Amino acid sequence: MAARRTTKKSNVSADELKAYYRDMLLIRRFEEKAGQLYGMGLIGGFCHLYIGQEAVVVGLEAAAEEGDKRITSYRDHGHMLACGMDPNGVMAELTGREGGYSKGKGGSMHMFSKEKHFYGGHGIVAAQVPLGAGLAFADKYKGNGRVTFTYFGDGAANQGQVYETFNMAALWDLPVIFVIENNQYAMGTAQKRSTSTEDIHTRGAPFGIPGEIVDGMDVLAVKEAGEKAVAHCRSGKGPYILEIKTYRYRGHSMSDPAKYRTREEVQKMREERDPIEAVRAMLLTGKHASEDDLKAIDKEIKEIVNASAEFSKESPEPALEELWTDIYAETAPQNA
Amino acid sequence: MATEILMPALSPTMEEGTLAKWLVKEGDTVSSGDILAEIETDKATMEFEAVDEGVIGKILIEEGSEGVKVNTPIAVLVEEGEDVPADAGQSAPDAAPAEAPAADAPAVAAPAEAPAAPQTDSSPDWPSDAPMASQTVREALRDAMAEEMRSDEAVFLMGEEVAEYQGAYKISQGLLDEFGDKRVIDTPITEHGFAGIGVGAAFGGLRPIVEFMTFNFAMQAIDQIINSAAKTLYMSGGQMGCPIVFRGPNGAAARVGAQHSQDYAAWYMQIPGLKVAMPYSAADYKGLMKTAIRDPNPVIFLENEILYGRAFDVPQVDDLTVPFGKARIWREGEDVTIVSFGIGMQYALEAAEKLAEDGISAEVIDLRTLRPMDTGAIIKSVMKTNRCVTVEEGWPQPSVGSYISGVLMQEAFDYLDAPVINCTGKDVPMPYAANLEKHALVTTDEVIKAVRDVTYR
């Protein structure tokens, strides 16, 4: 995954830029493949694609350090790939197979990785917000200097538990970064029809939580804002809000006809603001990479994604005995 | 290489659809993300996008075609300059692999014959010569939490008024002084939020005890209890456990009206992934609370305000723990089995006392935990008495007792000489008036009448 920087620099290296390109492209191609497998009936139920929003997670992962935690909603495939989870395990969970991260028992919306400090994957809108603050509470209790990235959307921002959490996070100076991925539509409802405030991060101000707007189609802007937020949290100053303005190209879920916005609106974003194209142009014009270099990355990503699709088809369905396992833990969990 | 474009499934329930409109024609070059067609599903008209790049070599299904099965080839994509293969579109639609035949689900066991007596654990919970001291339920609960907090740094208590106020019901008296405000934490009045923070802290490696001032207020937090705490271990394939105790008074207190007088035993008992304790005596409060805090799973610990001030003998042993899923027989008897838990036990024991005066010998079982439930102890007792009455303060539809009745029907039918009777709270919201409230709860007289009915005496 993206090379992690150990020192603060105002510029990114060519290698880092290439890594962001690669990581964003992996998410894009993975999601396209997931959409295809859904169309073939290999993936069932709900499937929420992340296409268009790739710069958000890739930029923030570039600002994270080993041991930092992340938790998000049901639109979670991008977060998992960005934090280094295995595409095979993610895709096989989407197809409900034994090789999936949850042995096929969680599905698209419910995946976890203790190893990568990824705490889900939550299907109830905004439930992950107090959970994320709870993870931060545990880190503060242990005094380990870790921060938790708690992602939620503009739709979730209207749930009451978000503000219950803002209050306690501020009251107790919890090291949590609230990342509002504002893709402008809560399922089919545009922000202006659902949300009284234009800039959602301003809702943190009454609680004393600083926040800012970030251009979510610019991976470098996201990374820079992420570093600022991380520094704030790690220094013990309490929570921070990043409202990242982004855009999802696909429907809310696979079964969304997307009649609430025009085809032209989507097309305009894709053509003018695509986060991957932007980095590609930066690499080429800055002569940080040649067309051939980028073709090689494209090829590598295609192979990884195709391999994940193959794995997800070949991995067997879970054994029937799995129906009855993992309901109760027998021994104390080693939650980190 | 030519690839077939297949009729997609565009909703979780779609099996076939109408190819409403083609937005490309043969010979068009397409790239990933281009819209190829509009397809009407069972829910809506959807745009269907290209995944691969290429040239539309041939359209196999005309627009306007209805009832096109999912996975039917609808067009052929070729590379620039490539010809369409002669057999394009001849392949039969693949059966969706998601429908792959699964082995038959195990059938529910239907015992053809009356079962043998179940194996039950009736060993004593503490040595019979352990010295006893009288202690209230309130003190027993506090001691249990304090002992576990002393032995495990990861255990902490959070809730409304638990610290400086010393507990709304004084359960946490003295804990702030001993453990400090890092581990005994006053929360704002924000049940949904602090329940979620507690669950997150448990995911993060701590062992929270979350006090609800009463379980009535936990209804605001029930999504976090069930969807986040109870289900995550399963949804994560065993990776992410949630060791947490949710505790507080449950059920009716006295004259506090409908919104503050509900018994949630039957609600929480239904949820796989939760454990549920509802003790009666101070010794069981202490031993079960210590077990609950050590348990790697989420535990609902249902206490009772009226019992808080009641004193019982508590064994003075070093580390008093009581296992979950093990009932306690308070009184042995021959003629009827009375099953109860929590404050219901006081009616059960009073009824047994009075019935004994009339020569009816009742065996009284305290379930202590409802999930896991020691149904073996009930069945074993009913095999001896052949009659059963259940006692609880909660509502009847459904009740803990109706579940027990079902278990006895299925597993001990041949041993029953009378229908099981469930004594429950009345099927009404709790009234305020003192006389009405008394009647809304289960009464000792009702238990006595039920026993007389099932024993025909």
Summarize the structure.
With 336 residues, chain A is an alpha/beta fold. Helices cover 43% and strands 11% of the residues of chain A.
Describe the overall structure.
The complex is a heterodimer of chains A (336) and B (457). Chain A has 336 residues and is of the alpha/beta class. Chain A has one domain (14-312): Rossmann fold (3-Layer(aba) Sandwich), CATH 3.40.50. Helices cover 43% and strands 11% of the residues of chain A. Chain A has eleven helices and eight strands. Chain A has helices at residues 14-39, 54-63, 77-82, 87-94, 128-142, 160-171, 191-194, 219-234, 263-273, 275-285, 291-314; strands spanning 69-72, 118-121, 148-153, 176-182, 185-186, 189-190, 211-215, 240-245. The longest helix of chain A is centred in the first third of the chain and has 26 residues, at 14-39. The radius of gyration of chain A is 19 Å and the shape is globular. Residues 1-10 of chain A have low confidence and may be disordered. Chain B has three domains: 3-85, Beta Barrel (OB fold (Dihydrolipoamide Acetyltransferase, E2P)), CATH 2.40.50.100; 132-315, Thiamin diphosphate (ThDP)-binding fold, Pyr/PP domains (Rossmann fold, 3-Layer(aba) Sandwich), CATH 3.40.50; 328-455, Rossmann fold (3-Layer(aba) Sandwich). Chain B has helices at residues 137-151, 175-179, 191-203, 222-230, 232-235, 265-268, 282-294, 305-308, 344-357, 375-385, 400-412, 434-440, 444-455, and strands at 3-6, 16-22, 29-30, 35-40, 45-49, 54-59, 65-69, 73-78, 132-136, 155-159, 184-186, 207-211, 244-249, 275-277, 298-303, 311-315, 328-331, 336-340, 362-366, 369-371, 388-391, 421-423. In chain B, the strands form five sheets. In chain B, strands 11-10-12-13-15-14-20 form a seven-stranded mixed sheet, sandwiched between helices. The longest helix of chain B has 15 residues, at 137-151. The chains are: A alpha/beta (336), B alpha/beta (457). The interface between A and B is large, with 81 and 73 residues.
